[in-house]
Design goal:
4 copies of one chain form a homotetramer.
Chain A lengths: L2 E6 L3 H12 L3 E7 L4 H10 L2 E2 L2 H6 L5 E4 L6 H10 L3 E5 L6 H14 L3 E4 L6 H11 L6 E9 L6 H6 L3 H4 L1 H12 L3 E9 L4 H5 L5 E8 L4 E7 L7 E8 L3 E4 L7 E5 L2 E4 L6 H4 L1 H17 L7 H20 L3 E2 L1 H7 L1
Parallel strand pairs in A: 1-2, 1-4, 2-3, 4-5, 5-6, 7-10
Antiparallel strand pairs in A: 7-11, 8-9, 8-15, 9-10, 11-12, 13-14
């Protein structure tokens, strides 16, 4: 039995997901929705699918699942709408930048029995997945300390920053999700510092470009996140987990696996510089995991509740950076559970 | 304009090439030939192509190029047949295990004006291609010494060994091609040693499992090749080129990019263990290069003459290993040029 | 002209410094003080020096400088005493565990015009020194974010923990000094979290074994420190500094520079497991730097003021870990300046 | 009981050995011989030893062992003379550049019952020693293939080349010794190629600057050696040994253990550039091993026979490079055994 997909939004990330669907056995792309985009026509030609309106997809009998790649402020509405229409939903993160709106959306998901997966792609990176599998297999014993070093090659455009919700909700949110996933226990306390070091204009827009966060769970496990919007050497994405019997870490990925040596020394290529190149395999794997969960009727690998929890950590980090105080999340964590 | 492909042979490597064709823009798979294989039916279903006889493909108006993935002893015949039929030909290495047969085949290619590419996939590995590009860009100055370390995870089945032409023609031949490509000058002298160290049965079959070869060009550049049929840690594929101003090297590829640390030390994953996994990107890139050469009318990236030359080096290495003398190749090299 | 040294305390660290003195050109060890130790006799034999009382050394005409390697609670007294006696002083860190006592001691140093160096050995590690030199040479532009990963192979004995002043004053204090050195600007705000994860007995003694700290300067530069009292894979000592144009990092040191590969993967040696082995070169270099400063009359590379400032950061971190609030250090920093 | 040393020759390598003697427990430097050198005076001052003539040292009652650091053409004579005088002898390699002279010298050693160690320092490098210990401990099973990559930063002065005996006797000889040590079986066959690639003047002097050698033992084990007189990136010294169950390798040593990253990529320091810096620890360890063998009365770790055997391999390699034929060494090997 084939799972029939529609992709909502033919932009950059919509194309990534369409390509992923084409690679998954038992998945077919039947429709793309994007009223104004030439990209939609290119995708229709390439994958032999229809261009339809969102309304038509909502009403279609031949669509089992939608992949939401539209602007962030439409996510929650579309999730609710397609849950009510009985379609499974894969939604790019975030569900919304406002936790109240996310909670309302989750209520609809719950009432409709909707099946919703949120796209935290990093959990599906083959290296990070191997790292997690090793932890789950007991290779390092009980997890104690998680270190996440995560730096973008450069800041996004100013107008994106304005609508992004700020560095914690836009960039660190991936690390919050990874930290929750790796700590194996909900975070209870958040401490954060944030500065403007790379570009004063980012500060003028009310955002930060450099941040450090300490997360702590009830049993005292800790995660540390270090972020910058500027890494001249590429897209820096490292994870290290210390456990009682050992450590496991995932290395960066270079643009090429070759090395020069000359009188100045030994030279390796910069890192892969773009999130879509760095996480190509992860994007394919997350759609495959979504399709597999639909096929098997098993639990969604990442739920909208995971999206909410990461957003709460982002809000808490911002509050801590502004107040200079540790922010406790216990009550909220219980709600999510 | 789309280049229309037929794949001859639906075995393991035929499937690899079919997948590659499906990924190349402007290429289409229209037919698969394999009279007895269930694999042919699976490919026909997956790629929406016909199953046809080789005769039918030879006569077809809707086939521009064939990819020969049949047994080695059919390669030369099929190359000649499809050159005469006016189809472009991509042929898995080797053209034949006998240099006289290869020369006769080349004569037909020449007479028919045939366009033939031989599949030395390693030249298309992204890392090796980056290494070569760096040399061509002058990053290490004039090439002096090439080091090729190439070890298989394990020996092939005994019946394969019997028909393989021996380690030099079956395994080292890839290194001979790489050495020619990297030295930038034809090889003039070959010295080799070969032993049986991993399995006496291989010796009983008249073959070796461990070999070292020194190649030397007219200007004194040298390449050294070290081969073994057994590397417990995976498929070991390294290249290092020393030039007048520096060195460039390509590293191995591990099964995962993670590292453990414990009281015993630091532990990395074994190497990718299978040539198809290790060279996935190379197989895709070589078909893309073939399609691009057809589209542009440009020279074939690797010709049947390259195949002949590598085979001559293999024959010379075997002769040197048996005689204990350096074997000179000058006359033969001139014939090829 | 030779600088004549006396070493006070013939224990483990006293022996390290005696060996260092023996390697420094223009330095001579003339006396060792340790009334009860067989180690003192061994040192006297090995280096051909006298065993004397501290009183005798204080009064001696033939001693230019003392190296204080006695228990921590004697440091401040001995510094004052030898400053008053007109001897140069090298003192193992810390000056004292109590900042008030350190300030009083500094007052005596100031009044006597004493020349005092405090032994933060890590600044003299050849790799860390090369990293600092690179920053000072402008290789990464303005410093933005410092990452210090510092883990001990195992916790010290319980009775040591009891008198150590706690993890921040005993272990993290080295990282506080490194952070100050590398940030190039005084720390203004400290945030910390601390837990007991490796051994509940450490918690019962009122200490922690796992800690993370964020430091922030007035201009927004940040340093992050991650500490654990247990790293099964050896003594983990890494530094990474992100600047506006690049990053520079110092790697760990393994017990041997060899690698195994087998069917389980690739295996490197554990890290050097003991601070004296890991920092052998640093201990020699710090005494050489002290001797050079005495010879040249130049400024002490690390002053007692540096010792005070690191201790203030340790106190602030403890306060932050206990209160959950960021602790500001501005006024204190001004006092130190 | 202290072993009393005299060093013959106060040049660069003589100073290295004097420093090593000073570090060995139970060893004392009592005399240095070098009639014309200011270096001798400096050493006498630094180590508190006498300056004496070689005759005086030969006759001295207070000298147990000599370290011969004089020009190569005096080595064999001095070995014979001090063996006859009943002193133990440590001699820098080579004993002589002529195998007949070496054999004659060995005869004297045998007749006098002399205790002679030849200084192949690389066997005492901590990494190479760890690699060998791992092989001996069975970590990789039976040894199959040895790879030695050995490149000098630059060629020696022309007048040194003239008297050096050529690249095989001067440079590759270290690799011949390492190959013998690691193969665990005597070499039976030698094949070599040599060229002039870095400097035509070297060719004009009758020498080569680039060479590759294949060695083979009776059981078919092989070693491959690749040499160049020019490596712009430093002193390149790598070893890799493939065995039936795994591989073990020793990495190069960089001038510093730090890494830069910037828009051009990741940059490591060049290699240590000078044999004395690279092999500092090895020089100290070999003298310690010599002293230990004298103290214990145990076998010399490296004998003059080892020196002869390496020289025979060098001669065979030169002959192979000139003749283009494999050179067999069986009879000679039996003589040595």
């Amino acid at each position: 039995m084939t799972t029939r997909f529609a992709v909502l939004g033919a932009g950059r990330i919509g194309q990534v997901h369409a390509r992923a669907i084409a690679q998954v056995d038992g998945a077919a792309l039947v429709a793309i929705a994007d009223p104004i985009s030439a990209a939609a026509e290119a995708m229709a030609t390439k994958y032999g699918c229809d261009i339809r309106s969102i309304d038509a997809i909502e009403a279609a009998d031949d669509v089992d699942a939608v992949v939401i790649c539209t602007p962030t402020d439409t996510h929650a509405d579309l999730i609710e709408r397609f849950c009510r229409a009985g379609k499974a939903v894969f939604c790019e993160k975030p569900v919304d930048l406002d936790t109240a709106r996310v909670r309302a959306c989750l209520q609809v998901v719950k009432e409709t029995g909707g099946r919703v997966m949120v796209g935290f792609n990093r959990r599906f990176d083959p290296d990070f997945a191997a790292l997690k599998a090793a932890i789950d297999a007991g290779r390092i014993g009980k997890v104690e300390m998680v270190t996440l070093i995560s730096r973008d090659p450069g800041a996004p455009p100013y107008d994106y920053i304005t609508s992004s919700g700020g560095i914690f909700r836009d960039m660190t949110i991936h690390d919050f999700d990874m930290a929750r996933w790796l700590l194996g226990e909900e975070v209870e306390t958040v401490m954060a510092q944030a500065s403007v070091l790379t570009d004063p204009k980012i500060g003028a827009l009310g955002d930060f470009d450099s941040a450090n966060v300490i997360l702590r769970t009830a049993s005292g496990r800790q995660a540390i996140i270090t972020n910058s919007r500027r890494a001249t050497y590429g897209y820096d994405q490292r994870i290290e987990v210390l456990g009682e019997t050992g450590m496991v870490s995932a290395r960066n990925q270079h643009a090429a696996n070759i090395q020069f040596a000359d009188a100045q020394g030994f030279h390796d290529a910069p890192l892969l510089n773009f999130f879509m190149t760095r996480y190509t395999a992860a994007y394919a794997a997350e759609i495959a995991a979504f399709a597999a969960a639909l096929r098997d009727g098993s639990a969604m690998p990442i739920t909208a509740g995971d999206g909410l929890r990461a957003l709460e950590l982002a809000d808490a980090a911002l509050q801590s950076a502004q107040s200079g105080q540790a922010v406790r999340l216990v009550a909220s964590a219980q709600k999510v559970a």
